[in-house]
Amino acid sequence: MRLEQCLPLLGLLLCAVGTTAQLDEELEEEFLVEISGTTVTVTCPVDEDEDIQWELSGKTQDTKSRKFTIKDHDSSPANLSCSFGNTKHQLYLNAKVCATCEELDALIVAGIITADLLITLGVLILVYYFSKGRKGRASSAGDSRPRGPKMQRPPPVPNPDYEPIRKGQREVYAGLAPRAI
User: Tens of pLDDT along 102-123?
Assistant: First the structure.
């Protein structure tokens, strides 16, 4: 078969596989877990709102509604399941809770970051403008050494192997004078 004849068949096959994958995803329903402070609320993924049986770590619970609330959760992992009729959904719950935590939404976090950047930029501009006028002035620390091109090199560090000849020691070196040939 030629390539031009295979392309429509390939496109049809890809559409069929994509549709089947979407149907499989729609069949998989998920639990809804909400955490506020130390309270964890779990919503069962069944369509009915009554006669739902909940089990928390193997113990049957009293709640028969679609939402199950765990108050004062201690952040320990738990196996949670809800069943309606012969369908059973299971969830491994590993929710970390804290009593003194505050909830932040994305807008507050973006505002904090923006404010931090603006304050940093403001400090940067202030430092730039206040240090701009100080260029070329002598410092107030009392440093009296000349700066810039007028600066002279300090004398070299004396080497103890080459000490200068002291007065009274010239006769030791007198015999080292250059000889005439």
Answer: 778 899 999 999 999 999 999 9
Do residues 82 and 49 touch, judged by C-beta distance below 8 A? Answer: no
pTM: predicted TM-score of the whole model, two decimal places: 0.44
Place of tokens 């964890």: 40
H/E segment holding residue 93: strand 87-93
Do the beta carbons of residue 84 and residue 44 sit within 8 Å? yes
Count of C-beta atoms within a 10 Å radius of residue 33: 13
Question: Using CA atoms, how far apart are residues 44 and 49, in angstroms rounded to an integer?
Answer: 9
Calculate the CA 49 to chain-centre distance: 41
Q: Which of 86, 92, 96, 83 is nearest to 44 (CA)?
A: 83
Beta bridge partners of 17: none
